[in-house]
Specification:
Layout (H helix, E strand, L loop, with lengths): L1 H17 L1 E11 L13 E6 L5 E6 L7 H6 L16 E7 L3 E9 L8 E9 L5 E10 L2 E7 L5 E3 H4 L4 E9 L16 E9 L2 E7 L1 E4 L2 E6 L5 E11 L4 E12 L1
Parallel strand pairs: 1-7, 9-16
Antiparallel strand pairs: 1-4, 2-3, 2-5, 5-6, 8-10, 10-14, 11-12, 11-15, 13-14, 15-16
Keywords: Signal
């Protein structure tokens, strides 16, 4: 028994001796936008051994969304670095003793569950051969949409809205938190934003939402009857193929 324990201890020491520290930079980049960083809570990264699922490293991307001019306004030649030392990323430091095939899993944005995207890729890690710079960049498609009004499960008296209607207001940003506004870098004029309306499970039509100020989209819903209402707000950019959705339910009563 003692010999077995000693053998296992020596074996473990040998593994650690021959394992080599290997660094892997992982970044999450919003589709048609910038890197997912601290300003929106980051992306959560998990690096796994693809053979047995063992987690080799995990953590959140931290740092800035990156250089807007470089990322969004400049033509990029081969080998152009889009990141710098301040740009958001997660540096995985992994000890391996042989080439290891890994899964890189990204959940982003980690703090916005209604908009979260799970994206992944795979690659070989070679002991001691660091992958730095931009590193592995995982694209995160979509928009972060939060319906602000009406709010979830709100009860509204019919008499209070039968003349004025109910205001629909949503906050919409890129997946990195980058702002959307008319004539901006992320131009709301290029985006279709609508609210789909249901009452008691039946479709009632749609309302186009306008963008009066940065990140804010709104419209007015006419209400004539009591019932259970559902609002689905979607954003769609035909040029990039980006889409996003949020839903809420509310009640109109006597």
């Amino acid at each position: 028994m003692k010999k077995s324990i000693l053998f296992l201890a020596l074996f473990s020491i040998c593994i650690n001796v021959f394992a080599t520290e290997t660094k892997l930079m992982v970044r999450a980049k919003a589709k048609d936008a910038k890197f997912v960083g601290s300003s929106i809570g980051g992306a959560y990264v998990i690096v796994r051994n693809s053979l047995n699922g063992q987690i080799l490293a995990e953590g959140k991307t931290t740092g800035s969304t990156g250089n807007t001019g470089l990322i969004m306004k400049s033509a990029h030649e081969r080998f152009t670095l889009l990141s710098d030392e301040k740009t958001a990323g997660f540096l995985a430091v992994i000890d391996i003793d042989e080439p290891t095939y890994v899964n890189v899993e990204v959940v982003s944005p980690v703090n916005k569950k209604n908009a979260q995207v799970k994206a992944s890729t795979q690659l070989w890690l070679i002991p001691g051969k660091d992958i730095l710079g931009d590193g592995v960049v995982v694209e995160i498609p979509g928009f972060v949409i939060d319906i602000l009004t009406p709010n979830t499960h709100q009860y509204i008296a019919l008499e209070s809205v039968v003349k004025t209607g109910v205001k629909i207001e949503a906050n919409i940003v890129m997946m990195c938190g980058c702002p959307i506004e008319k004539e901006g870098i992320w131009d709301s004029n290029q985006m279709e934003v609508k609210a789909l309306i249901q009452k008691d499970g039946k479709n009632m039509g749609e309302i186009t939402l306008t963008n009066p100020k940065q990140n804010t989209f709104d419209g007015q819903l006419e209400i004539k009857e009591t019932g259970y209402y559902q609002i689905t707000v979607y954003a769609y950019n035909a040029t990039t193929g980006n889409t996003g959705v949020d839903k809420i339910n509310f009640v109109v009563r006597d």
